[in-house]
Design goal:
327 residues; alpha+beta; five-stranded mixed β-sheet; four-stranded antiparallel β-sheet; 11 helices; 38% helix
Length: 327
C-alpha cells in the first residue's frame, strides 16, 4: 500500500493508527501481511474460492494456499469445505465480523485520499434484484464506465433482501418499501406500477377477471422468492387491499420469463409493468384489473449512513440522479 508524501503528516498518522487498530482486532496475529486477511474476507463474502480469486486477481490455488497458511498461523479452521460449497466455521464467522469494519476503515481512508483531486476509483459492490439491475443500472453502465475508467462495478443479482453491510456491499437497490429504516435511501426511479397481464388468446379462451377474486378461476403464473416463499398478489383499490394466493401451471423465479410465459398464453402474470411495456404496446399482451393496480413508490439506491461514501459510489449516485440530458 503506497502512501504519497504530499498526503501530509496528520493523514499518515491517521492511516498508521488504523493499521494499529486492525492489528489489535486480529488478536495480535503473528502475520504482518494483510493480504491473507483480504483473501479470507473475499472467500467469506463470496463463499467461493474461485470468485474470491477473480475479485483479487489471484489464482484459486493461491487463495487456497493463503487461507491454509492463515489457518495454520491462527491454529483454527476458518472454513468448512466440500466439493460443492464453502461455509464459515463458527471461528471464521467471529473473525469475519471483527475484520470487516477494520478492513473497511483502511479501504475507506485510502479511497478518500485517492479521491481528493483525482478521478473516482476503486471497486463499488452493488446488490440488487435482476429487475432493478435491468431497469436502473443497465441503461447507464456503458456511459458510467466510459466516464470513470478507474471504477470497477461489481454487481450481484440477488432476489433476497440481503444485509448489504454484513455481506460486504457498498450499496443496494430495492423497492422503497423494502429498504431498512437505518439506511440512507435515494430515489432512482419514478413510481412502479404492477400489471396483471396475459395474451389476447388466453383471455379469448378463459374470459376476463373483473375483480381480484376472479383470479382463483384462472391459470396464473406464480413468482417464487429465493427464500422459497410464493408471492401473494397484492391488489388495492380505494384503500381496500386484496392478497390473492393464486394457483396455476407454472411457478418461476424470473420476472422477465413470467412475461414471456404470459405472451405464450400460459396464463396471467403479475409483474412490474415496465417489464411488459413493449408487449403491451404491440398487442401481444393485455392488462386487466387496472383499477386494482395502483402505483407504488419506486426503486431506491440505499447505503449505510455510518460508512464513508467512496468516490466511486458518489459518482454512481450522481449519474443515477442527474436530470436527463437534452441531447
Amino acid at each position: 500500500m503506497r502512501l504519497h508524501a504530499d498526503y501530509g503528516p496528520l493523514t499518515i498518522q491517521t492511516i498508521c493508527s488504523i493499521f494499529h487498530n486492525i492489528m489489535k482486532t486480529i488478536h495480535q496475529s503473528k502475520s504482518n501481511d494483510l493480504s491473507a486477511f483480504a483473501a479470507f474476507l473475499a472467500v467469506a463474502t463470496h463463499r467461493s474460492f474461485r470468485s474470491a480469486a477473480s475479485e483479487l486477481n489471484m489464482t484459486p490455488s493461491a487463495i487456497s494456499h493463503s487461507i491454509k497458511v492463515l489457518e495454520q498461523r491462527l491454529s483454527v479452521r476458518l472454513f468448512n469445505r466440500t466439493t460443492r460449497s464453502v461455509s464459515l466455521t463458527e471461528a471464521g464467522e467471529r473473525l469475519a465480523s471483527k475484520l470487516r469494519p477494520a478492513m473497511a476503515s483502511i479501504e475507506e481512508a485510502v479511497q478518500e485520499l485517492e479521491g481528493d483531486g483525482h478521478f473516482p476509483s476503486g471497486t463499488v459492490r452493488i446488490n440488487a434484484s435482476e429487475g432493478a439491475i435491468r431497469l436502473v443500472l443497465r441503461p447507464m453502465l456503458a456511459r458510467f464506465l466510459n466516464k470513470y475508467p478507474h471504477v470497477h462495478l461489481d454487481i450481484v443479482s440477488d432476489g433476497r433482501l440481503s444485509d448489504i453491510v454484513a455481506d460486504g456491499f457498498d450499496a443496494g437497490i430495492r423497492l422503497a418499501e423494502a429498504v431498512p429504516k437505518d439506511m440512507v435511501a435515494i430515489s432512482v426511479t419514478r413510481e412502479v406500477r404492477f400489471a396483471a397481464i396475459a395474451s389476447p388468446e388466453y383471455f379469448e379462451r378463459r374470459g376476463y377477471p373483473s375483480v381480484p377474486h376472479d383470479l382463483y378461476d384462472h391459470d396464473c403464473i406464480r413468482f417464487r422468492f429465493e427464500s422459497g416463499a410464493i408471492y401473494r398478489w397484492e391488489l388495492e383499490r380505494l384503500g381496500v387491499m386484496e392478497r390473492i394466493n393464486v394457483s396455476g401451471p407454472l411457478t418461476l423465479t424470473d420476472q422477465p420469463l413470467m412475461v414471456e410465459a404470459a405472451i405464450d398464453g400460459i396464463g396471467i402474470a403479475f409483474v412490474p409493468d415496465h417489464l411488459a411495456k413493449d408487449a403491451l404496446e404491440d398487442g401481444r399482451l393485455k392488462r386487466v384489473l387496472e383499477d386494482w393496480c395502483p402505483a407504488d413508490p419506486g426503486l431506491c439506491l440505499y447505503y449505510s449512513g455510518r460508512r464513508h461514501i467512496s468516490s466511486g459510489l458518489r459518482a454512481l449516485i450522481t449519474m443515477l440522479t442527474e436530470p436527463p440530458s437534452d441531447n
